[in-house]
Specification:
Layout (H helix, E strand, L loop, with lengths): L1 E4 L8 E7 L4 E6 L4 E6 L4 E6 L4 E6 L6 E6 L2 E6 L5 E6 L8 E7 L5 E6 L7 E7 L3 E9 L2 E6 L5 E6 L4 E8 L4 E10 L11 E7 L5 E6 L3 E6 L4 E7 L4 E8 L5 E7 L13 E4 L14
Antiparallel strand pairs: 1-24, 2-3, 3-4, 4-5, 6-7, 7-8, 8-9, 10-11, 11-12, 12-13, 14-15, 15-16, 16-17, 18-19, 19-20, 20-21, 22-23, 23-24
């Protein structure tokens, strides 16, 4: 196994990696800087579109991967990465106050899912589904810091991280109508001794064997978790403390790309880089793109 920094650019808070099959490049965001990034791992060069706000996820459109579904603070926008122009699609309702979007991902039908957080508040965030016509439908509540999403291989389970609560949840999922029900706890970092010292569950992906790969913010690692037994199968020690998210990419989806963030007051020269992890002995699947 090998862990290598593949980006020359160091992000303040790199997040939301999404592999683009068409260009063989990696989209991700630098959240509080407001940048949507596209990395060529072969050269280490990152192209950037800067926006005025907090960027939290980036997902290519199924019809054209240069058109991107993004969130910008409280807005959902369509971004043309080539021109840098963006179009407002919808936004959070006024009654959600100071809530803003965070991580997001698409299911196998191309529906977008995203959650929210309210700064300095507990259990005020929600999980939303973006339905046709760019209508936001609330699916779950009492979330503190909405984060990583993943679906089981049979699309009958939705996994979801509440980072601040230090919990990984799972729902019964109906792919046909996009309903997520029967929310319960899969892993509780506060109570499960194996997880107690591993920071906060952040971004997440799943491999072809149905095992979860979870980035541990402030834990300096990526965990491979068996959701059936709720145990850690593998722990990847990363070169920096704040590990934010991961996704599979490369021509054969056998490279795990990992985003990271800087940590104030700590000398970690590679913090904020995108890393490529190879030789894992497993792989992922092509990511789901957004369908209008």
């Amino acid at each position: 196994m090998s862990i290598t920094a593949v980006s020359q650019r160091l992000s303040d808070l790199g997040e939301g990696p999404h592999w683009d099959v068409t260009t063989q490049k990696l989209y991700y965001i630098d959240a509080f800087v407001g940048d949507v990034c596209r990395l060529d791992p072969a050269t280490g060069v990152t192209e950037v579109v800067h926006l005025d706000g907090i960027t939290t996820f980036v997902i290519p459109y199924d019809s054209d991967s240069s058109k991107l579904l993004i969130t910008l603070t409280r807005q959902v926008r369509k971004l043309n990465f080539t021109t840098g122009e963006s179009e407002l699609l919808t936004e959070l309702p006024p009654e959600t106050g100071s809530a803003r979007f965070n991580d997001g991902k698409c299911d196998a039908k191309g529906r977008a899912w995203t959650g929210t957080l309210v700064p300095n508040e507990t259990e005020k965030g929600h999980l939303y589904r973006l339905d046709s016509g760019y209508v936001l439908t609330q699916v779950s509540d009492k979330i503190t810091l909405s984060n990583g999403l993943a679906w089981s291989l049979d699309n009958r389970t939705l996994y979801f991280n509440d980072s601040e609560a230090r919990k990984i949840y799972y729902f019964d999922y109906n792919l046909e109508d996009g309903s997520a029900t029967n929310k319960r706890i899969l892993i509780n970092y506060n109570e499960d001794k194996e997880f107690e010292t591993l920071g906060y569950p952040d971004g997440m992906t799943i491999d072809i064997e149905g095992k979860l790969w979870v980035a541990c913010y402030a834990g300096g690692c990526i965990l491979r978790i068996d959701p059936a037994t709720k145990t850690i199968l593998k722990k990847l020690e990363m070169p920096c403390t704040n590990v934010t998210s991961c996704c599979f990419g490369g021509p054969h989806f056998d490279i795990l790309y990992v985003t990271t963030a800087k940590k104030a007051g700590v000398n970690e020269p590679q913090a904020g880089a995108v890393f490529a992890v190879t030789g894992l002995g497993t792989r992922g699947q092509p990511p789901n793109h957004f369908k209008e």
